[in-house]
Each structure stands twice: as structure tokens, then as C-alpha cells.
Amino acid sequence: MKILTRYVLLDLVKVFLLILIALTLAIFILLVGKEAVDKGLGLGPLLRMVPYLLPQAMQFAVPATMLLATTYVYGRMSSYNEIVAIKALGISPMTVIWPALALATLVSFAGVALNDLAVSWGRNGLERVFIESIEEVAYRQLRVNRNFTIGPWTITVRRVDGHKLIQPMFVEQPSSGRRGQLALAEEAELFAFPDEGKLLVRLRNGEVESPLKAIHPDWFELEIDYSSFVGSHARSPSNYALREIGPAVESQRERMEDIAQSMTAQAGFAMLTGNFDALAADAWQPFEKEMSTARQRLYRLHTEPWRRWANGFSCLCFVLVGAPLAVWLRHAEFLAIFFACFLPILLVYYPLIAATVDQAKDGVLPPPSVWLGNFVLALIGGWLLRRVIRY
Fold it and tell me: Which one, 66, 158, 175, 282, has the greatest CB density within 10 A?
């Protein structure tokens, strides 16, 4: 028994590590290429992004690797009739299947930690590198394309002479209802200040419309807040580490209580003074919108830990389906076995987890519902295991 267990476990670990290295490298190259194309980054910023991109590549590679390793090892054992020989000796197939389940459980815990690292440390690190490289990226794009767009801002130049932008035009097209800014100048320079969260534009002999027109015959400055193109400084719940979510939930509840108290005070003051116009729907709408936004954020904070644990334990659910199905389809080729395992995952697991996560973030479903996809895969895997053991 121990010999069989050790044989299967060593084989699984060896195949898992080989596939993990290859698949992580392939996904990593795709992520690097995507960052280079989408953000126009040079070699220097891309190299600084390497440690932050690696957890994201492994985040996608680990579950697929676990499924590939399982289908390969058990498909090969079954095709060589090793499972039939084990049954003929009166040994249960679970003797060779449980090492995969044990390995998948350990990998699942590692997957939870990896997901947490990728979405908190990894994403925040990528954004920080991009912010620190904005000046370099902007000049590179302007030299090559003579225009550069970031967020609501579009910069167009006639040419770039060293660090000077010749005849630049800065156009802001905000998504909100307010009117954007337009700046024209004879020449300009860009200076990034990541620590202060701003991009400083020094212009000479130009004019600005925002919305009033102002002419500046000498040097003048235009400040662009980083939040206008990287989003609000308020962190998204998906970028919190698991250890930060608990305090963030308490903080969000306190904020909702403050909003509710403000609404109560506003209503009381309006009734006390007889100003019933302050209770009209139009006057009350900003409070309701603020409360709705705060409630939505609270739902997302509650959902995030369940989602990360469900994603991490997808490795175990994949093995529950892949191992018995690979044994059952012993005469099929490796790729046929893999796609036969991946089909229920593609058709059942991913649609279910996407739908339940969206509904849980909206408060329609309770946060534990994000485990529904894992539960369905576990039922399918349990049914397949029973058939393999009995027949």
C-alpha cells in the first residue's frame, strides 16, 4: 500500500512541477506582453513589474496545472491497466486516488494564499510601478505617435525635442457632466511627482479654457491629479489582503452609520423648520446615492474572502472530477481525457462562480453562495468516484 501511495504521489508531484513551470512561464509572457501593449511600458518598468506579475501568472496556472497533472498521471495508469491490476489484487482504487486528493488539498491552501498575494500585493505593485513610470511612458508614446491618451486626458504634439513638447495640446474629456479643460502652448514639459500624486505640466506662451479662457504669455503650470487616470485613491475591496478585510468591514459599517445619522438629522431639521422641500425626492437623492454606494462596498467586502477561498479550493474540486474521469476513460488519449474533464468545469463551474459572485456583490445572494460551483463539481466528482470504486 505504501509503495503504491508513494509511487503515485511522487509521479504527481514531478508532473505537477514540470507543467507548473511551463504554464506559469507561458502565462507570465502573455501578461508582460499585455502590460507592454496596453500601457506602452519600456524594458525598465517591465522588469520592475516582474515580481508583481509572477503571482498573477501562478494564480491562473496552478488550478489548470493541478487538473493537467491529475489527468495525465491517472490517464496513463488506467491506459496501462494498472488500475485494473490493483482491483484484481483486491485493492480499492482509492489507494491510488487519495494521494491526489491530499496533494490538491495542500495546493488549494497554497492557492488561497497565492490569490490573496496576487490581488493585494501584486495589483497594488503594478499600479505603483505604472505611476512611477508615467513620465517615461508619456514621452515614449509622444516621440513615436505624437499623441498620448491616459484616462480622460489626450496629449497631442507636433514633435518632441529632448524633454520639450513642441506645440502641445492638452484636452480633457471627463466622464462627469462638467466641462473639460483645453490647453494650448508653444512648448511644454512634463514632470511626474508620484509621491504627491500629480503630474505637473509646465507650459510657455499658451492659453487655457476651463471653461473661461485665460492667456499666459510666459511660463505657467497645469496640475493633473493621478486620480483622474488611475481611479479614486479609495482602494477597491478586491485589492485588500484578507487580513485587512475585517477592519475594512468595521470601518464601512461605521461610515454607513454616519450617513444614516446625517440623514436622520437632515430630516429632523427639515421638519423642525418646516422646510419640507428638503425632504423632496430630488433633495434626498444624494443621501440615498451615498448610502447605496456604501452598502454596495460592504457587500463586496463581505464577498471577497468567500470568493478567494472558493477560487483556491477549485484545485481540489478539479481533482475530484479529473482523477476518477481519467480512470474511467482509460482507452482515451490524454488530450481527450483533459477536455472531457475540462468540459464540465467550463460549462458548470466558471458560469456558476461568475454569476454567484456578481449576485453576492450586489447583495442578492449571501456571500457563501460563491461556493456553489465548487459544491456542484464536488457532487459530480463524488458520483464519478463511486462508479470507479464500484466498477
Answer: 66
Three-class secondary structure of residue 294 per DSSP? helix
Burial class (CB in 10 A: 0-12, 13-18, 19+), 61: buried
Write the DSSP string, 119-146: IIIIHHHHHHHHHHTHHHHHHHHHHHHS
**Residue 51 CB partners (closer than 8 Å, separation 6+):** 125
Residues 307, 311, 317, CA angle at the centre, nearest 5°? 130
How would you classify the pairing of strands 159-161 and 164-166? antiparallel
Positive or negative, the CA dihedral 245, 251, 255, 258 is positive
Whose CA is closest to 213, among 179, 244, 186?
Answer: 179
Measured CA to CA, the distance from residue 243 to residue 246 in angstroms comes to 7
pLDDT, one tens digit per residue, over 8-56 is: 899 999 999 999 999 999 999 999 988 887 777 778 888 889 999 999 9
SS3 227: helix
As a whole number of angstroms, the distance between CA 334 and CA 233 comes to 48
C-alpha angle 16-18-23 in degrees, rounded to nearest 5: 90
Q: Can you tell me the distance from the alpha carbon of 284 to that of 296, in angstroms, rounded to the nearest whole number?
A: 19
Provide the 10 A C-beta neighbour count for residue 285.
10
Phi-psi region of 197 (alpha: psi -120 to 50; beta: other; left: phi over 0): left
Q: What CA–CA distance (Å, rounded) separates 246 from 320?
A: 32
The burial of 116, by beta-carbon neighbours within 10 Å (0-12 exposed, 13-18 middle, 19 or more buried), is given as: buried
List own/partner pairs for 55-58 with CB under 8 A and 24 or more apart: 55/114, 55/117, 55/118, 55/121, 55/122, 56/31, 56/118, 56/122, 56/123, 57/24, 57/25, 57/27, 57/28, 57/31, 58/20, 58/24, 58/114, 58/118
Name the grid cell of 322.
479529473
Helix (H) or strand (E) holding 186: strand 182-193
Report the alpha-carbon distance of residue 102 to residue 115 in Å, rounded.
20
CA distances from 312 to 62, 204, 257 (A): 9, 55, 34
Over the stretch 304-338, which tens digit does the pLDDT of each residue have? Answer: 999 999 999 999 999 999 999 888 887 667 777 77
